[in-house]
Automatic annotation (TrEMBL):
It comes from the Bacteria. The lineage of its organism: Bacteria, Bacillati, Bacillota, Tissierellia, Tissierellales. This is ABC transporter ATP-binding protein. The keyword Transport applies. Keywords: ATP-binding, Nucleotide-binding, Transport. It comes from Soehngenia longivitae. The keyword ATP-binding applies.
Amino acid sequence: MDNKVLKVENLSIAFGGLKAVDNLSFDIDEGEIFGLIGPNGAGKTTVFNCITQFYKPDEGDIYFRTNTGEVENLVGKKTHEIIGKGLVRTFQNIELIRELTVVENIMVGAHVEFKASLFNQFFRLKKTRQEESRIRKRAEEILDHMGLLSIKDMLVAGQPYGVLKKIELARALMLDPKLIILDEPAAGLNDSETLSLVNIIKEIKMERNCSILLIEHDMKFVNGLCDRICAINFGKLLAIGTPEEIQGNEQVQIAYLGKEDD
Ligand SMILES: Nc1ncnc2c1ncn2[C@@H]1O[C@H](COP(=O)(O)OP(=O)(O)O)[C@@H](O)[C@H]1O
Ligand SMILES: [Mg+2]
């Protein structure tokens, strides 16, 4: 695990008779942008849910180098416990608090997120003024980096989809993660929004000591961005390699054949 941040070993999980993930292994280097791709239904989100222990895998181990440098097996841990150790994620469907402003949503990210109580946490935070101003300053720095400072005091409700995606990513950065997992971040974005997201992800890689696991079915999006890619179908490994290797891989091409528009 020398220069690895995550090591997934022989991961399997079945729903009823369906093997959604089948003996899958891959690992991610420190500072790497790693893609997990596959057609719709391939098992990508299930892998994501196993890593964050939202699902309990039937078999396998998931080793993670935490933000204190120790290596821990995530299997059996609680989701919020894992997030506190430096592994954060954004969802395929955006989860933000529409009634709060942009900067307030980012500030919530400073606390180990726990969906149901996000709103309450924000108001608890307001009570400790000093802490609040320190967190607000960091939130504004991150927003500035993402080109969102000018809308910091606007409500989240009504913001365009591409902006919501950026806000969600900004919130994840508040925890100073070792690894960020993004589940289909480009889904629903138009071309210019996608380009802007690609640039932000590149900047995150350059400026932070952080790895990114990019889960995506769109090959075009991952090719220009990832150092290495793992392609799966029917929960099974097809290939791991550079974007060029994956693009040229026959098994991957067959898996994607006729599924480009899914
Ligand atoms: N909670 C669940 N219960 C039953 N089947 C599930 C569940 N989650 C995912 N699946 C099934 O597992 C397979 C992989 O799904 P998913 O991981 O969402 O694929 P992807 O994210 O690659 O599109 C699909 O056949 C899906 O229907
Ligand atoms: Mg999915």
